[in-house]
Amino acid sequence: xxxxxxxxxxxxxxxxxxxxxxxxxxxxxxxxxxxxxxxxxxxxxxxxxxxxxxxxxxxxxxxxxxxxxxxxxxxxxxxxxxxxxxxxxxxxxxxxxxxxxxxxxxxxxxxxxxxxxxxxxxxxxxxxxxxxxxxxxxxxxxxxxxxxxxxxxxxxxxxxxxx
Amino acid sequence: xxxxxxxxxxxxxxxxxxxxxxxxxxxxxxxxxxxxxxxxxxxxxxxxxxxxxxxxxxxxxxxxxxxxxxxxxxxxxxxxxxxxxxxxxxxxxxxxxxxxxxxxxxxxxxxxxxxxxxxxxxxxxxxxxxxxxxxxxxxxxxxxxxxxxxxxxxxxxxxxxxxxxxxxxxxxxxxxxxxx
Lengths: 163, 180
Description:
Chain A is an all-alpha fold. Chain A is 61% helix and 0% strand.
């Protein structure tokens, strides 16, 4: 029994991740097929949205996989294939958003927030250190004035309230 | 003065975040909406044969320029929203006289013929698309509808069924504006 469960666990470990690519779609040329697979992982299946066409079983994903391979066979570069799809589906079809002015905030925003945090922490510790160093002791005149002020207040408090 | 302004900071941060939430929760915003890249571009190259058994011709790029404003609708007999929009599409073509061309997406010819025989055929041309034409048009699924102007440029693209509200608010005003 335990041997069997061990075998099951082992076979689960060895199982390769499942891909949607069907054998009939694959190209004979292993170099082109490798490029097609790498490219497919970057292309969003437009109906399943958060899956790449490499892992989606949707019909449109199948259509796009075949199309990517056709264009590679026709001699397109990887970029030309992506451009072809972007012209039809927009940047949405790319799983990795391109770096351009409209996406600067997306790409660099986290670093901006990190920078704000670093500056804020820096300022906080500087203030704390400044507060920790005590101001110089009072001069003789200041001591005398303080005693007078405190004395006045004490005298005021002792005075009975007038009705 | 600076110190006082600093107290306003949480309020400002809250207002900005609340603004994003308001935008994100707006009922008319659909986060699954796929933006269209085809607007104001010429119709793509495609050439589709007629559906066997249907008495209307097929559809190709050449049919879409120089013939006035036309509407192109991707549909399939297996598509439930297509059935829902069919009555509105038929009424729209009857009312405006704008030609409606169909692209029958991934369908069996006999199913498409039976579907149109049952519901009526508002399409002047129907091309049978095994799948590639949809990609050329940037279509993600059926139904989707395009309005093409006289020069063969795509002027409007809608994903999903044409419901009366969209027809009244978007389609009719645009058709009126494009008509000579």
